[in-house]
Write the structure tokens for this entry.
Amino acid sequence: MERDIISLYKETVGSLLAAADSFSRETFNQVPFEGSWTAAQVLVYITKSNLSVAGVLSWQGEPAHRPPDERVKELGDIFLDFTTRLKSPDFILPEPGIYEKEILLQNLQHSITRIYNEADRADLSEAVKHPIFGDITRLELLYFVTYHTRRHINQLNNILKYVSTCQTVS
């Protein structure tokens, strides 16, 4: 199970980096439509979320007293439902602005490396008390970060369609 999620996350990261690479310097910071984030802002958001999850993975854990993957389906049902709009915590929302693609991708890669490193050190069957998720195992957190990343890959692909084919908002 633990190797499965690491492989799944690695595959998802590959898709994320490919999606990010699809944007030119010009389209990276373009607002595709009113109320949307830019591709750059999506990547800032993912980076902030990753760093938050990496921090939680390092928290003191305790025995879960339940299967460590019990909430995986619940997390998938929530985060892989692309028809719903979810509210993000304020502390990980991206700031408006123009971002340098290369610097942002370096920061993103750093956040991904932190997740790998923390996952490698942690007992994934242990639970932590998360302010949003409540009692959640580290294994479930890795599924969350994978599903959450997939959700935003979908968002990046939609943004790319708009900036490639539609008139964008200035």
